[in-house]
Here is the input.
Amino acid sequence: MDGFIRSRSRPAAAMMSTKAFTLVPAVEREQLMGDRERVSLECVECCGRNLYLGTSDCFVYHFLLEEKTLPTGTATFTATRQLHRHLGFKKAVNELRAASALSRLLVLCDGCISLVHMLSLEPVPSGARIKGAAAFALNENPVSGDPFCVEVCIISVKRRTIQVFLVYEDRVQIVREVSTPEQPLAVAVDGHFLCLALSTQYIILNYSTGASQDLFPYCSEEKRPIVKRIGRQEFLLAGPGGLGMFATVAGISQRAPVHWSENVIGAAVCFPYVIALDDEFITVHSMLDQQQKQTLPFKEGHILQDFEGRVIVATNKGVYILVPRPLEEQVQGLLASHRVEEALVLAKGARRNIPKEKFQVMYRRVLQQAGFIQFAQLQFLEAKELFRSGQLDVRELISLYPFLLPTSSSFTRSHPPLHEYADLNQLTQGDQEKVTRCKRFLMSYLNEVRSTEMANGYKEDVDTALLKLYAEADHDSLLDLLVTENFCLLTDSAAWLEKHKKYFALGLLYHYNKQDAAAVQLWVNIVNGDVQDATRSDLYEYVVDFLTYSLDPDLVWTYADWVLQKSQEVGVQVFTKRPLDDQQGSFNPDDIITCLKKYPRALVKYLEHLVMDRRLQREEYHTHLAMLYLDEVLQQKPGANATGAAVTETRAKLRHLLQKSDSYRVHFLLDRIRGAGLPMESAILHGKLEQHEDALRILVHELADFPAAEDYCLWRSEGRDPPYRQRLFHLLLALYLGPGPSSTELTVAAVDLLNRHAAEFDAAQVLQLLPGSWSVQLLCPFLTGAVRDSIHARRTTQVAVGLAKSENLIYKYDKMKLKGSSVRLSDKKLCQLCQTPFSEPAFVRFPNGGLVHTHCAASRHTNPRSPSPGART
Amino acid sequence: MRKPDGKIVLLGDMNVGKTSLLQRYMERRFPDTVSTVGGAFYLKQWRSYNISIWDTAGREQFHGLGSMYCRGAAAVILTYDVNHAQSLLELEDRFLGLTDTASADCLFAIVGNKVDLSEEGPGDGGQDGGHGPGPAGVGAAPRLPKQVQPEDAVALYKKILKYKMLDEKDVPAAEQMCFETSAKTGHNVDLLFETLFDMVVPVILRQRAQGPPQTVDIAPCGPPARTRSGCCA
Here is the structure.
């Protein structure tokens, strides 16, 4: 049988499960040489559908290859034999190369390259040939731009000589001959660069300049060299230790070597794979990661070559084709065995072989699949990166988690599926710890993704899923999600939140969906203890705050009683803290006051808000507030001694209001206060009515609060003229000194008053009032002040008199000056305005001496445009 | 495939830890490695540059490949094992010659690896630690006295400069370019590579700049004449 072994035994490790190629027979032995046992296959050429074989008995065979794809997806080849031809020697055919542009086949046999027709296999009539060739190579990156010639480079039979030829349809032309330092054994060519295997080393030789570059040494006695052009300016060489070395024309290596066996015979390239042949195996390495990917048992192989992407391997007797498995299939195979890295490298490597759009679709899918593989292994970081770069529809991921996608979601998983898992439970096999980790991952992933364009089009699904995850995990971000812009679907989310008893959050959800009434009702229920949710301990305050800023008046009115019942002081904030522009419309103060009737403390707060904060001057509010204060003061009065502080506070407020406000009904209050034992308040009210004597009498006689009396004078005279103030002080002084049982306190108070406010009194009047018994010493400060004042007043007046006199003198002087000279009118004097003589004795003289008619002077004042005589000289 | 902007090559005798150093730096781990076959390389992005780092095979069998790997290298890391004096000698005997193909302004770093195996702390001098206190008990490996001292590496560095006919003034100082590392513990590994990357970037820039004009014209081009604006007053 032939060398193709169909045994299943695989020497390589399990790692190499990629199936990059399938080996398919193309030409069987029977087709080729029948029963001629000793004849063997020497060389192969394939050009399009044309397959040429050269044999050891000097025959060239031409076959047409036909590729068929079986329904199973595997390719098969049938080769139909065309012409064959004996070349007329007794030697083997060494090499065959087709030049399809010329329709010529170059045949190396017996040291001579002859040109035969590609179809007839007839030699060209001109008999053109290249003699003395040991081996040759075609330049696949030709230097000359001529499409009707090929560049052929031969190893000459002359020692250490390389020759370069141009081969035309029926002639050949030598263009260059270069000698090499050692005998060349193999050659490949790219542009001007020859890559040569010499007897001890590989070199790059530029045949145009003659410059050579050593690559690396090897031993030609131990093994046959391999020189293979793999692409622009890059070669693949068999190195020491079974290495496949890559080298560029610059003499450097840009890829790491691949590791073949020591006895490798041939090498070929089919991107991204490097294929090598030895006695027993065909091995496949990836150029992308240098790893061995596949091993195919193949005995007695001796030719391995690639022709425009088609890889052909041959034994002495038969020809086989290595058919690349579709890339998708290879990638899927790798993914199926969870070899993510390799799959990605392979898929990415296909970028230049596939149209861009197709590549992107394919590559994205591979990334997504790889992501799910990593995900299933709980490699979340890697998975995330893959999902992101693969632009995964996040719903694919969400759909793995039961119940997360909204019931309304139109999502269906992509087909074919991106992974093999039904859901998370299957993936984790029920391991709850893993489930938790997966959920945590999804939380962070969705949170990152929701604001990016990856969520576009299904933000509802993403946000709803995130809400469900947060709620389930009791995650703080649940609230953040709900109070910021989100797309959580109401029905789905509400049911879920209810299930997980997240009532506060549910309220937020209602609010976000403009169902404030439902939200507040829910929160009220929580505060009332009807449902349990401890999310916020200050939920009552939250509700108050919420209502305060709520734009829905009905809602506020609905819950006003509730909040006020809970706490009058806090509850009233829904009215008092409301933004001002909001208080106008539906929140009429009168309505609110009516509402607050039942809640006195709240009412006080509200009126204070109106009076103090908003400074409304409506009499009702002020009076009402004062009355409320008063009621409280009166209520607390009996126990005044016990709760002194509280009384003082309210009274202080009352006094403050009475003093500062001008809007309340003084008489009304005065009536209420009468007999209530609130002298200070009465005094203030009297003061408001300008009944200063009454007020002061209370202060002095009832309260004996002299400082208060003084303050009263200052308070009531604030902003009035000095005589008014003086009147008040005199009034007070009179009270102190007044008839009746004079007491020492009053006397002292009078003295203090005089001494302290000396400036507020008319000293002359005071002196008359004072009893003669008082010593000067006692009133020294007052008297000193009074005398000083008096002297000061006198002196100031004297100065004023002096100044007035001198001013008068100046005017007198001016008058004298003006009267001092006479004016003579004559015919020669002309009016300065109309330039005509004066005809009557009356005239006007300007201070500068100019003379004008009286009527001219009058008209000048009415006609501002006429020149001002004062301006003239 | 991204084209590397510069190349760094690790050279040194087999079993000194070249692959381990590189894996420690690139993958932050210290796995068991097998003897490198042929060579391998990593691409490292350093700032905006792609630097390829080649790990070579120390085995004699692959020695011939060294020249090719070194061709055009911007830096060469000569690695030895501080516990094997011979490995330092090999650098001079076998590996220095390979660097002839490197770039003319190639940098050299000399790295003594496996300091974790020796008794003295890194940088300690003194030869007589051999009979000191017993093994200090890191892992099962008994600690051995260090066989190569930092001074030996410095001496080699100076020899290299002579061999390359470089003036000490024109190149980084020996102290800067000689390292003692441990791929196992990670000691000095980042320092080694990152120091080198920082030094290699200017080399890359210089190589790029050395396009057609090989010399820079430093002739004074005259003070810039201040042209008065011709606006009419």
